[in-house]
Write a structure and sequence with these properties.
heterodimer, A: about 120 residues, mainly alpha, 4 helices, about 80% helix, B: about 140 residues
Chain lengths: ~120, ~140
């Protein structure tokens, strides 16, 4: 897998979101604004990532792995922050921050897999 | 940090409780799918391990529904289901080390849930602790 700018940006955004949300789980007894904003940032990143991937593919770049698998990951990952946000607005307790923390971890793993598929690496 | 003000007398389904229900739900779905596949396609290879997989799947389904239910009596059902899960994961965990020939094929509870990051072992402990802290309000029944 080639570590490119998209991957580095995604890792930084996901890591920041996880750290903010874990701190919020410890300090806040309600869903924290910054934790929610950080999860929104993860969603924005995924949208940009998806559009960029579509543009690159349309411009002639090919996905080395299975295209349907790559886009399956993109589509599924886009739901993750949305579900966590819905969770946070319907459960106003400390623990919604823990759910928000799971977003960054989940999206990181999925992004890692998307990059592997893009570059054609086999599943470890 | 004192006891959070958001904790109402019967908030078993809120906060951490909701996370516990979600994790049980994920286990109910994934273990049912996996056990169903194992039992239907290769039951003969390891009948004991796969039968226990099916039992585990049923326990997870009962636990998920009972934990999420607000009906009177659901507390007792969920406590029993989670307790059976704990006993099951310990018994199957010991058996899988004692009788490795019968547990050559992986199941949810074999080796104390190793294949699932030991979540099957930790989850019932958290569940029992949570249920103990959120007993059913007497006025409900």
């Amino acid at each position: 897998m080639i570590v490119d700018g998209f991957f580095i940006a995604g890792v930084i955004i996901c890591a920041l979101s996880v750290v903010l949300s874990v701190v919020a789980t410890i300090l806040r007894d309600h869903p924290d604004d910054y934790a929610i904003i950080s999860v929104a940032a993860v969603e924005v990143f995924l949208i940009v990532y998806g559009i960029a991937a579509a543009v690159r593919q349309a411009g002639g770049e090919t996905i080395s792995g299975e295209a349907w698998e790559f886009w399956g990951y993109v589509a599924t990952a886009l739901f993750v922050p949305v579900v966590a946000f819905a969770w946070a607005i319907t459960d106003k307790t400390r623990w919604s921050n823990a759910v928000l923390a799971a977003v960054g971890l989940t999206v990181f793993v999925m992004l890692y897999r998307m990059e592997q598929i893009w570059d054609g690496a086999t599943l470890v | 940090m004192n006891a959070p003000a958001t904790q109402r007398p019967n908030s078993r389904q809120a906060g951490l409780g909701r996370i516990i229900i979600a994790v049980y739900g994920i286990f109910a779905i994934s273990s049912t799918a996996r056990a169903g596949y194992q039992v239907l396609t290769k039951f003969g290879e390891a009948p004991l391990a796969y039968a226990l997989s099916a039992v585990a799947a049923i326990i997870y389904i009962i636990a998920t529904i009972a934990l999420a239910s607000k009906k009177p009596g659901s507390w007792k059902v969920s406590f029993l289901a989670v307790l059976i899960e704990l006993i099951g994961v310990i018994v199957v965990g010991i058996l899988s080390f004692a009788l490795p020939q019968d547990f050559a094929h992986p199941a949810v509870w074999s080796h104390f849930g190793q294949g699932y990051g030991y979540i099957p072992l930790v989850l019932p402990l958290i569940g029992l602790w949570w249920l103990n802290r959120h007993r059913e309000a007497e006025a409900d029944s």
